[in-house]
Amino acid sequence: MDPQGQLSEDYRTCGFCVPASREEGLGFSVLEALASEVPAIAAAVGGLRETIKGGRNGLDAPSRKRDGPGRVH
After folding, report:
1. Given this model, what pLDDT does residue 30 score?
2. Rounded CA gap, 12 and 1, in Å?
3. Could you tell me the pLDDT band of residue 57, with boundaries at 50, 70 and 90?
4. Count H helices, E strands: the chain?
5. What is the rounded distance in angstroms from the CA atom of residue 47 to the CA atom of residue 39?
6. Burial, 9: exposed, middle or buried (Cβ in 10 Å; 0-12, 13-18, 19+)?
7. Phi/psi of residue 42, each to 5°?
8. pLDDT grade, residue 1 (50/70/90)?
9. Which of 11, 14, 59, 62 could form a disulfide with 70 if both were Cys (CB 3.0 to 4.6 A apart)?
10. What is d(CA 11, CA 44) in angstroms, rounded to the nearest whole number?
11. Residue 36's pLDDT is what?
12. Rounded to an integer, what distance in angstroms lies between the CA atom of residue 45 and that of residue 43?
């Protein structure tokens, strides 16, 4: 199996993708998960603001503030 096919298969073993970053450029791991039909739960930062469509392909949360965690929408 080609590496990309293996990666998609590996993502599909997960119920969802949860990147732990508070800052993000394009969010390639999230894009790969979504391409594998795995929803994502991520902070609404960087490119993930445009990628995650709450309720359709995952859930987004405001980026964590110093006074406490964000809430998932």
Report:
1. 92
2. 15
3. very high
4. 3, 2
5. 16
6. exposed
7. -150, 155
8. low
9. 62
10. 21
11. 92
12. 6
Burial class (CB in 10 A: 0-12, 13-18, 19+), 57: middle
Give yes or no for a contact between 52 and 60, defined as CB atoms under 8 angstroms apart: yes
DSSP 61: E
Residue 24 identity (one-letter amino acid): E
Residue-wise burial string across 15-30, b where 16 or more C-beta atoms lie within 10 A, e elsewhere = eebbbeeeebeebebb
Question: CB–CB of 31/50 below 8 Å?
Answer: no
Residue with tokens 């298969």: 9
The residue assigned the tokens 């987004």 is 60
Residue 64 carries which side chain, given as an amino acid letter?
R
Amino acid letter at 35?
A: A
- The pLDDT of residue 71 is 57
